[in-house]
């Protein structure tokens, strides 16, 4: 089995014809329905459903409280290296971009970890570009061994691995995988991934599933919003989450909703995703799958992030730097993208508390 | 109202509460005070000893029994490891076993729970297993050393009430250990219903933690649990006096015997 079978089912689907025949009464009924079908989910992502955002928000808040309570998990990314052999039109790490390339040594990782741990964070996501030469699996495993001294949960957001490599990193102490398909539409995927191993659509698509087979504890998927029509891409993301949850019920599934941010690169054809659109995606996802995690990163502005909290966010990054070694050195030209919410961990903690929610620092432990 | 005896301890309160899903830790001592609970469960994986303001243990009064739970365990082995970590962290030797490998409905795995119960009871833990109400599974848990059995009323966090009523009733009748209804209780009236049925206690979390006024809701639950228990004990008293009476309704049949 593969999620690709589901992708194929919808390849020829006439989304716009489907949206055109929807009527408002139907949307209201769906919002109130206990269990939403795939079709209901697509309806909630329709242009017509935009008129019912408040009704959707009321239900989404209820479902979120029921499943997650008033808790928001905090984490931060840690960039280990930005060497990359891929040419991706939307990313600063693109091998042709003239940015400073850097890779942290084991000692630098230890120092960076100490500084992050001092902010109280217990959950970390480690990131690299894709380079077998600079950041092979052995480097990731060594990094994880150091990070285990400081953190209770370690996720990886690196290039896709084989199943046995996932087994290796899980044994080393990794409990979470973040992997974004970027775009489910195959043609656009081909267009934006100009060269490099990332061109292999299927190897990336099936990566989450390979990690699930190795009993990883949590998987975070998503697309880069802006590469294609967000309604279609969000629909596929929701179906991917459902697929993983159905096939691997012992894995916690979460979805991120990153919008394209200014970056060094060549991608010009950005499809706009407004704040209103972002809210609709979040609400539709929450109503479709009430028990999946929803992650809002510092790509979004602080005011918007704070306002999204009661609508169903379950995870937020805090004290973020996308620079390699950005917590211990002053690098300003190694970053992956510009961040909008530059608040410290403590500032975000206080902002969450002031919204009547509880910022959770620790939700897992190495057992 | 009779005392509730569990693990050799006499408790006045028959309401156990959970610590997840609250808007902050500061509210916890007020919730505990308003409902008078004496036993509180917390997920071991969330206990954060390194952060003063985040350490849940600092918000629980000393006179409450800590009931660490193994939330996050997907099999018996993980549950056992989490329980041992809890003990090492200084959470005492009580443990609520939760083994869940179904992230959709959060339904427990009875088989793995029985295995974990056996291992931990032998190690001297006072074990309270969370389970799907199944008579044979409950018997095996008690044989394995469980101090009580905690069947679900409906799935965790669902607030749907005692949907498993008929099965829980069977456990209450047949199992020689306290039955504590855990999970699914969404309203005080449902807690009262569980107590009227003869459950020894109930455990409530989501309904209190996510209410607009957790302190008020905790109080309401405590009153409902008391009311339900008194109703149960009163019914018992009545039934037993009826059974012991000298059959006044059919006494005339024996008149000639004298």
Per CATH, what is the topology of chain B?
Answer: TIM Barrel
Distance between the termini of chain B: 41 Å
What is the level 1 CATH name of chain B?
Alpha Beta
What distance separates the N and C termini of chain A? 31 Å
Which blocks of ≥5 consecutive residues of chain A have pLDDT under 50? none
**If you average the pLDDT of chain B, what whole number results?**
89
DSSP summary, beta strand count of chain B: 10
- As a whole number of angstroms, the C-alpha radius of gyration of chain B is 20 Å
SSE class of chain A: alpha/beta
State the main characteristics.
heterodimer; A: 367 residues; alpha/beta; eight-stranded parallel beta barrel; two-stranded antiparallel ribbon; 40% helix; 13% strand; globular; B: 258 residues; TIM Barrel; five-stranded parallel β-sheet; three-stranded parallel β-sheet
Describe this structure in words.
The complex is a heterodimer of chains A (367) and B (258). Chain A has 367 residues and is an alpha/beta fold. Chain A has one domain: Aldolase class I (TIM Barrel). Chain A is built from 15 helices and eleven strands. An eight-stranded parallel beta barrel of chain A has the order 1-3-4-5-7-8-9-10, surrounded by four helices. Chain A has a two-stranded antiparallel ribbon with strand order 2-6. The radius of gyration of chain A is 20 Å and the shape is globular. With 258 residues, chain B is of the alpha/beta class. In chain B, 38% of the residues lie in helices and 15% in strands. Chain B has eight helices and ten strands. Chain B has helices spanning 28-35, 76-88, 110-122, 135-143, 165-174, 188-197, 206-209, 214-244; strands at residues 4-6, 9-11, 15-18, 39-43, 65-69, 94-97, 126-131, 150-151, 180-182, 201-204. In chain B, strand 9 (180-182), helix 6 (188-197) and strand 10 form a beta-alpha-beta unit. The model of chain B has no long low-confidence stretch (mean pLDDT 89). The A-B interface holds A 65-71, 120, 122, 152, 215, 245, 249-253, 291, 353, 356-358, 360-365, 367 and B 20-25, 44-48, 50-51, 54, 72-74, 78, 81-82, 85, 101-104, 157-159, 206, 209-210.
């Amino acid at each position: 089995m593969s999620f690709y079978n589901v992708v194929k089912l919808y390849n020829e689907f006439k989304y716009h014809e489907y949206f055109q025949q929807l009527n408002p009464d139907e949307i209201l009924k769906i919002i109130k329905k206990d269990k939403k079908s795939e079709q209901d989910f697509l309806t909630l992502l329709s242009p017509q459903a935009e008129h019912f955002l408040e009704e959707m928000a009321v239900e989404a808040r209820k479902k979120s409280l029921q499943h997650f309570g008033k808790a928001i998990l905090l984490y931060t990314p840690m960039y280990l290296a930005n060497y990359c052999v891929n040419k991706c039109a939307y990313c600063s790490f693109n091998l042709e971009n003239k940015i400073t390339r850097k890779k942290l040594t084991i000692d630098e990782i230890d120092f960076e970890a100490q500084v992050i741990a001092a902010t109280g964070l217990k959950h970390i996501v480690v990131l690299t570009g894709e380079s077998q030469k600079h950041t092979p699996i052995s480097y990731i495993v060594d990094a994880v061994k150091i990070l285990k001294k400081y953190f209770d949960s370690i996720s990886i957001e690196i290039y896709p691995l084989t199943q046995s490599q996932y087994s290796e990193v899980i044994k080393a102490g990794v409990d979470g995988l973040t992997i974004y398909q970027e775009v489910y539409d195959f043609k656009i995927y081909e267009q934006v991934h100009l060269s490099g191993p990332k061109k292999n659509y299927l190897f990336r698509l099936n990566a989450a599933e390979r990690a699930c087979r190795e009993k990883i504890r949590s998987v975070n998927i998503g697309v880069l919003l802006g590469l294609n029509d967000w309604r279609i891409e969000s629909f596929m993301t929701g179906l991917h989450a459902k697929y993983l949850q159905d096939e691997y019920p012992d894995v916690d599934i979460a979805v991120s909703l990153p919008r394209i941010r200014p970056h060094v690169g060549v991608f010009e054809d950005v499809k706009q995703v407004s704040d209103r659109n972002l809210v609709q995606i979040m609400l539709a996802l929450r109503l479709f799958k009430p028990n999946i995690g929803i992650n809002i990163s510092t790509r979004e502005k602080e005011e918007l992030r704070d306002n999204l909290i009661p609508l169903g966010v379950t995870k937020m990054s805090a004290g973020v730097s996308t620079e390699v070694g950005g917590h211990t050195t002053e690098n300003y030209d190694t970053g992956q993208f510009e961040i909008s919410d530059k608040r410290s961990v403590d500032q975000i903690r206080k902002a969450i508390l002031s919204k009547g929610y509880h910022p959770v620092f620790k939700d897992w432990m190495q057992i | 109202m009779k005392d509730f005896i569990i693990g050799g301890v006499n408790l006045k309160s028959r309401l156990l509460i959970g610590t997840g899903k609250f808007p902050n830790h500061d509210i916890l001592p007020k919730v505990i005070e308003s409902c008078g609970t004496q036993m509180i469960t917390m997920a071991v994986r969330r206990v954060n000893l390194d952060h003063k303001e985040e350490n849940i243990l600092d918000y629980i009064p000393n006179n409450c029994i800590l009931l660490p739970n193994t939330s996050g365990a997907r099999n018996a082995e993980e549950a056992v490891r989490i329980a041992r970590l809890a003990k090492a962290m200084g959470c005492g030797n009580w443990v609520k076993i939760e083994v869940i490998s179904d992230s959709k409905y959060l339904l427990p795995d009875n088989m793995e729970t029985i295995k974990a119960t056996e291992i931990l009871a032998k190690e001297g833990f006072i074990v309270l297993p969370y389970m799907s109400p199944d008579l044979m599974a409950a018997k095996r848990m008690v044989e394995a050393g469980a101090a009580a059995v905690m069947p679900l009323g409906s799935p965790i966090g669902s607030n749907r009430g005692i949907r498993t009523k008929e099965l829980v009733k069977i456990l209450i009748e047949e199992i020689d250990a306290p039955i504590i209804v855990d999970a699914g209780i969404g309203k005080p009236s449902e807690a009262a219903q569980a107590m009227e049925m003869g459950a020894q206690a109930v455990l409530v979390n989501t309904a209190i933690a996510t209410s607009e006024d957790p302190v008020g809701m905790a109080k309401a639950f405590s009153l409902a649990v008391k009311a339900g228990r008194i109703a149960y004990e009163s019914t018992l008293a009545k039934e037993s006096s009826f059974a012991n009476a000298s059959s006044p309704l059919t006494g005339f049949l024996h008149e000639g015997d004298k």
